[in-house]
Specification:
Keywords: Metal-binding, Zinc, Zinc-finger. The protein is of the alpha+beta class. Helices cover about 40% and strands about 15% of the residues. It is built from 23 helices and 20 strands.
Length: about 625
Amino acid sequence: MEDSDGNMVLYQEQSEERAIADNCDMIEGSDVTPVVNREWEDGLDFTLRQEFESKQAVKDLVEKAAHKNCFEFVIVKSDTMLFVVKCCEFKRGCKWSLRAARNGNSDSFSVRTYNKTHTCLRSDTSTMRRKRRGTPHLVASVLREDYPCLIDTPTPKNLIPLVQSRVGVKVSYSTANRGKKLAAYDLRGTPEDSFKLVHCYMHMLQTMNPGTISFVELDEAQRFKYLFFALGACIEGFKAMRKVIIVDATSIKNVYGGVLIVATAQDPDHHHYPIAFGVVDGEKDTSWTWFFSKLKSVVPDCPELVFCSDRNQSLIKSINTVYPLSHHGYCIYHLSQNVKLSCKNVNRDLVATKFMECAKAYTEPEFEKLYADFIRRYPAASTYLDNHVGQNKWARCYFPGARYNIDTTNTVESINGVFRFARAYPLLPMIDAIVSKVAEWFNKYRKISLETPKEQKLVPFVETLMHTRCSEAKLLPVTELNSYFLEYSVTGVDGSSYVVDLRRKTCYCKQFDIDRYPCVHAIAAAMEAARNAGNEIQLHDLCSKYYWMEQWALGYSRTIYPVPIMSMWMVPDDVRAKIVLPKFYVTKRGRKPTKRIPSAGEHGRRKKKKNSSRSWFDSEGSRT
């Protein structure tokens, strides 16, 4: 109701359990039934002139209150300027209503008139046959309250009971899934907005993380084609890492598809150390060449550099073109899966195991012995290897570069698994998830490196290995050959004699040479050298500098910061003016596959089942 000045006056709060009788004087024995009105509030507690960022925000709050407090409403008018709703029982006298209007030329809405009191019976409205269903906006509003500023929210299956416990309505799986996507879109925009805002996002990523490098490639129609980015902290930290880069690509599962390329190193403690990421249209010559040309601006070409990958022909060609000075080795696990498929009527898993033993041999005599036995047992595998790949690409003892212990792409495959859910996000939320996870890794290993005692000179993995080998080395006989050049002869547990040169950091077993930290024979020689005055040698001095704690800590010294929400972006006008259109995509029928298709030779690959009913008819027909 309104006062004399025409202003809206709210109804006074009245208890839900208070009943007002129209006829207070009840005559005993009368057949007249008193009329009882119950008044209760809607739970919104709006105030006049209260502002909201949009009409949808008002609608979401009203819808949530309706489900939670068991009342139904009808929309009287809803357009760009007004939003007017009333109780569904307004024809029976319920006075609850709300009118919100747009504030001038802005998108915000404010409450103009509001009656928060219902006079209808809740028992009737809560059991109506035609009740308002839950919407994706309702699910998104619940997620905004319970998971603010988070893209990684519960699965649709887990959202259904969550929404019911918050607002008292059960939504379908598809509604929960659409609401989950809608909540993510509120943070980073729609999939189309991800392309339009990619320049602005990369500007903010570079602002938050100095030294970050990014490139965006467009086609002739100004549509998105390629993306490359490398965080400044990773670029600087890679200088303290071993110069071995593992490269692989994995599919992107969102509506626009494409491929996510990951170039990563492995820190000396055997943890992931991502260097750069790329988003391209597929594993083709042009896309791989473009990625490596941008990676070259971050990691220059040099003879010390080594790449490890699968045998994708486009990838191999691009590395040879862009990085001619580097060395390129193949993942021995992927190769073993191809090798075992070339053999028939044998235990293929045993073929792969024997091949891995050959590939991991440290010395040439050991390799030749193992490989000769492998050839005799599996001649088909030997033919396949001779025709398709050279030994210097997979045999550890023949590889020309410093590969250390990295001979598989397990590191990058593991990273692909970490981002298996993020690869279904739109472009910018996917990058958000990548940056967040890398920042988490940096923080974790920075704390470990700083909390390690100062007396420990080697990273935990190598320190543990040295601890084990010291007890073994103490039992080995050592003969001094040249005390000046620190050359010793060590008898191994196999009875063979191994010459160790501590100055050159070599051993006949080649483990010292390839792994770049002391083998058990080198440790035994170092113990013998320590017995002589003036020749005391610390084990960490025999290791490559990449295994030192100070180098490891240096790799994680910088902090990685996430990109803030869009409302906090400060982007120059020239960056905002850059136009990026979404890629073309074709909508395919059916449900989009989410599981990875196993590669050749992997376990779990399904075989096509024959139609049993068809085969039965064929067999019956042949009998007749």
